[in-house]
Amino acid sequence: NAGVTQTPKFQVLKTGQSMTLQCAQDMNHNSMYWYRQDPGMGLRLIYYSASEGTTDKGEVPNGYNVSRLNKREFSLRLESAAPSQTSVYFCASSLHRDSSYNSPLHFGNGTRLTVT
Amino acid sequence: AQKVTQAQTEISVVEKEDVTLDCVYETRDTTYYLFWYKQPPSGELVFLIRRNSFDEQNEISGRYSWNFQKSTSSFNFTITASQVVDSAVYFCALIDTGTASKLTFGTGTRLQVTL
User: Fold this and answer.
1) Considering only CA atoms, which of A103, A90, A38, A88 is closest in space to residue B108?
2) pLDDT > 70? residue A1
3) Which of helix, strand or coil describes residue A83?
4) Cis before A8 (ω within 30)
5) Which residues of B touch A (CB under 8 A)?
6) B109 vs chain A: nearest CA distance in angstroms?
7) pLDDT tens-digit map of A76-102
8) Beta-carbon count within 10 A of A12 CB
9) Which residues of B touch A59 (CB under 8 A)?
10) Chain B partners of A110 at a C-beta cutoff of 8 Å?
11) What is the mean pLDDT of residues A23-48?
12) Is A102 helix (H, G, I), strand (E, B) or coil?
């Protein structure tokens, strides 16, 4: 079972470049999430998708866009990367949004992004 | 607004010592869930436990135990007889029914277990 798969694992961008982080889950989960992890700040929610076809902003959405391509895939796009977006990005999924408190989030292994 | 505080930034212990990681939370909801996740040096996030607000029973799983006290809004995590493999960053997290999609994490406690 792959669980939640993120690509790439590492990426270096120059300021102003764009890129898309890919995430796919094979657990038939309905809800998917993107978090960023920064030193001393824990994990902060960027965007989430409660179900296929819907997306909503989280705590720190500025500078990002997302696409829920289908039930399995949820991508995060940086249109014009900035050094402040240097971070580790985690994708996660859960069975249902409304019961996400009732079932734990399953996380991918993360993407380490550096913007110079 | 919900908030999770892990006041201990870093803890160092010698193997076989017991260690407690503190977690204090804030929420206006009466129904909420608390979680602990482990992030080993390899970077992945591993789910450890979930506890709902109506169940104040302490839980033990092997060397791990959790003490949930609503009166002090705390959900502390104790590792008994720590081992080097316990070295990781541990996150406490909260979700309530008011913001069901938004799991709020604490800033994490880095545990270093040495021989």
Assistant:
1) A38
2) no
3) helix
4) yes
5) 4, 9, 32-33, 35, 37, 42-45, 47, 50, 52, 91, 95-97, 100-103, 105-108
6) 9
7) 999 999 999 999 999 999 886 555 455
8) 12
9) 102
10) 43-44
11) 92
12) coil
The span from the CA of A52 to the CA of A5, in Å, is 18
Name the nearest CA neighbour of A4 among B74, B45, B40, B95: B45
For residue A74, pLDDT beyond 90: yes
- Find chain A residues with C-beta within 8 A of B95's C-beta: 100-101
Measure in Å the smallest separation between the Cα of A109 and chain B Cα atoms: 5
Q: List, in order, residues 6 or more apart from B99 with CB less than 8 Å away.
A: B2
- The position carrying tokens 């193997």 is B15
Instruction: Please name the amino acid found at residue B37.
Output: Y
As given in the structure block, the two tokens for residue B65 are 């135990």
Of A68, A44, A64, A63, the closest CA to residue B102 belongs to A44
3-state secondary structure of B99: helix
pLDDT in tens, chain B (115 residues): 789 999 999 999 999 999 999 999 999 888 888 999 999 998 889 989 888 888 888 888 899 999 999 999 999 999 999 999 999 999 999 987 766 567 889 999 999 999 9
Query: Could you tell me whether strands B24-26 and B3-5 are parallel, antiparallel, or unpaired per DSSP bridges?
Result: antiparallel
Distance from CA of B11 to the nearest CA of A (A): 14
B105 and A100: CB-CB below 8 Å?
Answer: no
